[in-house]
Design brief:
CATH architecture of chain A: 3-Layer(aba) Sandwich
EC number (chain B): 2.7.13.3
Radius of gyration of chain B: 58 Å
Helix content of chain B: 40-55%
Pfam families (chain B): HATPase_c, HisKA
Catalytic activity (chain B): ATP + protein L-histidine = ADP + protein N-phospho-L-histidine
CATH class of chain A: Alpha Beta
Strand order of the largest sheet of chain A: 2-1-3-4-5
Number of strands of chain B: 16
Oligomer: heterodimer
Largest sheet of chain B: 5 strands, antiparallel
Strand order of the largest sheet of chain B: 2-1-5-4-3
CATH topology of the domain at 418-571 in chain B: Heat Shock Protein 90
Order of helices and strands of chain B: HHHHHEEHEEEHEEEEHHEHEEHEEHHEE
CATH superfamily of chain A: Response regulator
Structural class of chain B: alpha+beta
CATH superfamily of the domain at 418-571 in chain B: Histidine kinase-like ATPase, C-terminal domain
Order of helices and strands of chain A: EHEHEHEHEH
GO molecular function, one term (chain B): phosphorelay sensor kinase activity
Enzyme class (chain B): transferase
CATH class of the domain at 418-571 in chain B: Alpha Beta
Chain lengths: ~120, ~575
C-alpha cells in the first residue's frame, strides 16, 4: 500500500512517514498541497493523509484536484482545529475519515486501512 | 415566604437582590418622589376646597341667622317706639287742647281717660299735677288725688326736659307699669304736668312677637339692665340682667356672645328712641351649632375618605409604574449583560480554539517524534538502557495524551455558542464537565459520585449549552461544599420522554428568601466574586432547550438542583 502524507509541519510528516514505513506502509511525504498534486500526477497513491489547514491550498482543495487525477485514492484528514463544520464539510467533499491531532499511530493505521478499503470498494 | 416579602415590590429590595451590581437609579427614592409629587398635586386642591367650603358654609349659616335677627329687632323696636310716640302725642294733644280748668275737673278727666282707653288703649289712669308737685285731679282705679310728687326725680326731669317716660316700676299700684308725663307752660309763666300710667301688658305683648322660635327670647331692659318685660330665659320683670346693657346702641346691633349660663347666643338689640327702654332679642345657637357640627363632620368624613382613596390609588399607581420601570431596566440590563457575556464567551471560545490549535500541532510533532523513538527502541535489539528509554517515551506519550485531552476539551467547550442540536449521552457530557473540576475535587477532597440509570436514552440537545449549564451548577455546588464535602449526581429517565439530572450537595444551603431570587439576574451571594449571572443564564438556556430546573435547599443541610430535559428535540 502506498500512501502520501501532506502537512506543512515537516517535522511531523517526516516522523510519521518513517513510523509508517516501519509498519510496512510505503509512505511518502510533502509539505504543501501543490507538491501533493504533483506527486499524485507522478504515481498512484492508495491513501492520502492531508492536513486540513495549510498555507496556499487547503486539504479539501488538494482532495478535489487529486480525485480528478486519481478518483480511487482514499483520503484521511488531520486537523489541529476540530469543528463540526469542518468535519461535515470534509465528509461532504468525500473524505473517508477526519482525525484530530495528535493522533495515535495505531488509530491512524486503522483509518488508513479503512480508507484504502473504502476507496477500493468505490473503484470496483 | 413571609407575608411582608410577598407584598413588597421587587424594586423595594433592590439592594438585597442586587448588592454588587447596584443600579444607578434608586427606585425607592423614585417611588417616594412620585408619591410625594402626586399626593401634593391631588391633595392640595382637595384641602383648599374643603377649607373654603367649610368657611363659606359657616359664613352662610351665620348670616342666615344674623339677618333675620337684625330684621326682627329693627321691626319690633320701631313698633314699640311707635307705640310710645303715639301715647306721648295723645297726651301732648290733650294738654294743648284742654284748658287747665277742664283738666282740673275730675269728671272731665275721667271722660278723657275713657276716650283715651277707647281710642288708643293701654292707658290705666291720668292725673294733673301743678307746679308744686301736688296731684290736683286724678282719674283712674286708685285714689291718688292730693298726692305730692315734688320730691320725686321724674318731677324734676319733666320740669327741665318737658317730657318724661319712666322705667317700669311697681309704685303704689303694686304691679308693673310705667308713666308718661308732659309739662305744659301757661301764659302767666306757671306750668302744670299731665301724667298718665300705661299698662305694661300691652307693652309685653309688643315686646314678644309671634314669630320667635323655642330657642329664642325677646324682652326689654332699661339703662341699668333691669328687665322691663318678662324674659323666657333670664327672669321676670324687674329682675336684673346687666349683661344685656353692654352694647347700648341707637342702631340695631347683632352679635355673637355667651350668655351668663355659658350658652352660645346671637343677641340683637336696639334702644327705643326718647325712652329708657332697650329691646333685646336672644337666639340660642345650639341648634345652629349642631347643624354646623353635623355638616363639619360630613365634610371631614368626606375629606378623610377621599384622601384615603386618593392615597391608595396613588400608592397603587406609583408602585405599578416604578415596578414597570424597574422591570424594564432590569430586563434591558440583563440583555446587555447577556450580550456582553455571550461576546466574552465567544472571544474566550475563539481564544481557546486558537490556543488549542496552536498547541495541537507541536503536540502532534512531540507525539510522532516520541512514537518514532519508541519504534526505534522497539526495533533495535541492543538499544542501550532499553527499559529506561521505553519508560521515558511512555511518560512523554502519556503527557501528550493528557495535553491533547485538555485541548480537545477546550475546543469542544468553546465551539457551541448558538443552539445546535445533536445526539447527546448526558452521562458522557456530565463526565466531561466533571473533568474540568477534577483537579479541584482532588485538592479539596470532595467526593463526587455519579450514578447513571441503565439504558439511559440519548437526548437531542445542544452539547455546548448543556456543558455550560452543568458547569454552572457544579461550580456552585463546589463553592457551597466545605473541603471534604460530597456531591452526588443521579441521572435517570422520567416517563420515557425526559431525562432528569439531579445534583445534590451537602453544602451550606440557602435561606428560603434566597431560593426565589437565585434565578434572577445579578443575584449573588458570592459578593464581588460572583457575577450573579451564572444561574440566570443557566435558567435561560434550559428554557431555550424546553427543559426545566428546580431547586430545593435547606440552610446548613444542602442544596439539590434537578434539571429535566426532553429526550426528543423540541419542535
Amino acid at each position: 500500500m502506498r500512501i502520501l502524507l501532506v502537512d506543512d509541519e515537516v517535522e511531523l510528516v517526516s516522523a510519521m512517514a518513517e513510523r509508517l514505513n516501519m509498519r510496512g506502509v510505503n509512505a511518502d511525504y510533502v509539505t504543501c498541497g501543490k507538491s501533493a498534486v504533483e506527486k499524485a500526477q507522478e504515481c498512484h497513491y492508495d491513501v492520502m493523509v492531508v492536513d486540513l489547514r495549510m498555507p496556499g491550498m487547503d486539504g479539501i482543495e488538494v482532495m478535489k484536484l487529486v480525485k480528478e487525477i486519481s478518483p480511487d485514492t482514499g483520503f484521511v484528514f488531520l486537523t489541529g482545529y476540530g469543528s463540526e463544520e469542518q468535519k461535515t464539510a470534509s465528509e461532504a467533499a468525500g473524505a473517508n475519515c477526519y482525525l484530530m491531532k495528535p493522533v495515535k499511530i495505531s488509530l491512524l493505521m486503522e483509518k488508513i486501512d479503512a480508507a484504502a478499503q473504502a476507496a477500493c470498494t468505490l473503484s470496483e | 415566604m413571609p407575608f411582608n416579602l410577598r407584598i413588597t415590590p421587587k424594586f423595594w429590595r433592590q439592594f438585597e437582590i442586587d448588592p454588587a451590581h447596584g443600579s444607578f437609579i434608586n427606585y425607592r427614592r423614585m417611588w417616594w418622589q412620585c408619591v410625594i409629587v402626586m399626593t401634593s398635586v391631588c391633595l392640595f386642591p382637595l384641602i383648599i376646597t374643603t377649607v373654603i367650603n367649610a368657611y363659606q358654609y359657616q359664613e352662610v349659616l351665620k348670616s342666615e341667622n344674623i339677618a333675620p335677627a337684625d330684621r326682627l329687632v329693627s321691626n319690633t323696636a320701631r313698633t314699640i317706639s311707635f307705640f310710645l310716640e303715639e301715647r306721648r302725642s295723645a297726651l301732648d294733644f290733650v294738654v294743648r287742647e284742654r284748658t287747665l280748668e277742664e283738666l282740673s275737673d275730675g269728671r272731665e278727666l275721667t271722660r278723657l281717660l275713657y276716650r283715651l282707653k277707647q281710642v288708643f288703649g293701654g292707658f290705666i289712669d291720668i292725673g294733673l299735677i301743678n307746679s308744686r308737685g301736688i296731684q290736683v285731679s286724678y282719674a283712674g282705679p286708685l285714689d291718688l288725688q292730693g298726692k305730692n310728687y315734688s320730691r320725686q326725680s321724674w318731677f324734676h326731669e319733666v320740669m327741665i326736659r318737658g317730657v318724661h317716660i319712666s322705667d317700669v316700676f311697681m309704685g303704689f299700684r303694686g304691679y308693673p307699669h310705667f308713666v308718661i308725663a308732659i309739662k305744659h307752660d301757661t301764659e302767666d309763666g306757671d306750668y302744670y304736668i299731665v301724667r298718665a300710667t300705661i299698662d305694661t301688658q300691652v307693652f309685653n305683648d309688643l315686646a314678644r312677637p309671634l314669630n320667635i322660635g323655642p330657642g329664642s327670647d325677646t324682652f326689654m331692659v332699661n339703662g341699668e339692665g333691669v328687665l322691663q318685660t318678662p324674659s323666657r330665659f333670664y327672669g321676670s320683670v324687674l329682675q336684673r340682667a346687666e349683661w344685656t346693657t353692654n352694647m347700648e346702641s341707637f342702631h340695631t346691633t347683632v352679635r355673637e356672645l355667651d350668655d351668663p349660663e355659658g350658652r352660645a347666643i346671637i343677641m340683637g338689640s336696639r334702644q327705643i328712641d326718647d325712652s329708657p327702654f332697650m329691646f333685646v332679642y336672644v337666639h340660642q345657637t345650639q341648634g345652629l351649632l349642631a347643624g354646623w357640627l353635623a355638616l363639619r363632620g360630613k365634610l371631614i368624613g368626606f375629606f378623610v375618605i377621599s384622601t384615603l382613596v386618593v392615597i391608595v390609588v396613588i400608592l397603587g399607581v406609583c408602585t405599578y409604574l416604578v415596578s414597570a420601570v424597574y422591570e424594564a431596566d432590569r430586563r434591558r440590563e440583563a440583555v446587555l449583560h447577556k450580550v456582553e457575556y455571550t461576546n466574552k464567551l465567544a472571544s474566550l471560545g475563539r481564544l481557546a480554539a486558537g490556543v488549542a490549535h496552536e498547541i495541537n500541532n507541536p503536540l502532534a510533532i512531540i507525539n510522532e517524534k516520541a512514537g518514532l523513538l519508541e519504534d526505534l527502541i522497539h526495533l533495535t535489539p541492543d538499544f542501550p538502557k532499553k527499559e529506561k528509554a521505553h519508560e521515558i517515551v511512555q511518560s512523554i506519550l502519556g503527557s501528550v495524551d493528557r495535553c491533547s485531552t485538555i485541548t480537545h476539551r477546550l475546543l469542544g467547550f468553546a465551539r457551541h455558542i448558538d443552539v445546535n442540536f445533536e445526539t447527546i449521552y448526558l452521562d458522557n457530557l456530565v463526565k466531561n464537565v466533571l473533568g474540568f473540576l477534577e483537579k479541584e475535587s482532588h485538592y479539596r477532597e470532595i467526593e463526587v459520585k455519579l450514578e447513571v440509570e441503565e439504558n439511559l436514552p440519548a437526548i437531542e440537545s445542544d452539547r455546548g449549552q448543556l456543558q455550560q449549564v452543568f458547569l454552572n451548577i457544579l461550580n456552585n455546588a463546589f463553592a457551597a461544599v466545605e473541603d471534604g464535602g460530597k456531591i452526588e449526581i443521579h441521572i435517570n429517565s422520567v416517563g420515557g420522554d425526559q431525562v432528569a439530572v439531579r445534583i445534590e450537595d451537602n453544602g451550606c444551603g440557602m435561606p428560603p428568601e434566597h431560593m426565589k431570587l437565585i434565578f434572577e439576574p445579578f443575584f449573588s451571594t458570592k459578593g464581588r466574586k460572583g457575577t450573579g449571572l451564572g444561574l440566570s443564564i443557566t435558567y435561560g438556556i434550559i428554557k431555550k432547550l424546553k427543559g426545566s430546573i428546580e431547586v430545593d435547599s435547606q440552610e446548613g443541610i444542602g442544596t439539590t438542583f434537578v434539571v429535566t430535559l426532553p429526550v426528543k428535540r423540541p419542535a
